[in-house]
Specification:
It is built from six helices and ten strands, in the order βββαββαβαααβαβββ. It is of the alpha/beta class. The chain has a single domain, classed as P-loop containing nucleotide triphosphate hydrolases (Rossmann fold, 3-Layer(aba) Sandwich), CATH 3.40.50. It has a six-stranded mixed β-sheet, with helices on both faces. The structure holds adenosine-5'-diphosphate (ADP) and magnesium ion (MG).
Length: 224
């Protein structure tokens, strides 16, 4: 089943008097259960692509369907609820809340989301904490953890709402290469065992070929 379908997607940013083309006609299909890696140099349009798929921004032109729904024809509220219900995000800089402990950081999206009863909420948090191997760190705060462990927290936080799609924008860029590979392997394992669909992007050629399908992006165009 096609989970994401981009057709002729163009995106330009206005910079002063000129328009900067970031995506110049992208076609991409992602099927449920896939692990897709988008590889491209800095400035090639990876973040723009992920932001559009994540309904954080709208294209200048073209069609984006998620779960068969046309995103470009939704109002802001509909886009927001699609994002909340179906999409999880993992960022380069982890974006954890420093004053909350690990458990609370992971629980946070569930508090924002529709009211789950406390016992179900606890079950969800417990289960994702286990799947990223951070059981013993749940009462720690983010600054007591290593970069790799912080990114594990961010992965758990992205998964706790049980999204259909997880978007990871250069999640390994702040990590040493051994830790980067461990994080990628963890995402690959979660993709297999929990059937989570991942769209991962990186500028790092060394990560190529480790998991799933590879899509190359160059100057705002996909060059398979
Ligand atoms: P990547 O994530 O691959 O590094 P981006 O999607 O961030 O690439 O950027 C693609 C192009 O769009 C670059 O030329 C970048 O300078 C430009 N760009 C990205 N965001 C903006 C913005 N908000 N305003 C103007 N130009 C932007
Ligand atoms: Mg980027």
């Amino acid at each position: 089943m096609s989970l994401v379908q981009l057709k002729n997607v163009k995106k330009s940013y206005k910079l002063g008097e000129t328009w900067v083309p970031a995506l110049r006609g992208v076609n991409l299909e992602i099927r449920a259960g896939e692990f897709t890696s988008v590889i491209g140099a800095s400035g090639s349009g990876k973040s723009t692509l992920l932001n559009l798929v994540g309904c954080l921004d709208l294209p200048t032109e073209g069609s984006i369907q998620i779960g068969g729904q046309e995103v470009t024809q939704m109002n802001e509220l509909q886009q927001c609820s699609l994002r909340n219900e179906k999409i999880g995000f993992i960022f380069q800089s982890f974006n954890l809340v420093p004053v909350l402990n690990i458990w609370e950081n992971i629980e946070l999206p569930l508090l924002v989301k529709a009211n789950l009863p406390l016992d179900q909420r606890n079950q969800r948090v417990q289960s994702v904490i286990q799947s990223v191997g951070l059981e013993t760190f749940k009462h720690h705060r983010p600054d007591q953890l290593s970069g790799g462990q912080r990114q594990r927290v961010a992965i758990a936080r992205a998964l706790v709402t049980q999204p259909s799609l997880v978007l990871a924008d250069e999640p390994t860029a702040n990590l040493d290469s051994k830790t980067a590979h461990m994080i990628l392997d963890l995402m690959a394992e979660l993709n297999k065992t929990q059937n989570v669909t991942f769209l991962f992007c990186s500028h790092d050629e060394k990560l190529i070929g480790r998991v799933g399908r590879i899509v190359r992006i160059h100057d705002g165009l996909i060059v398979e």
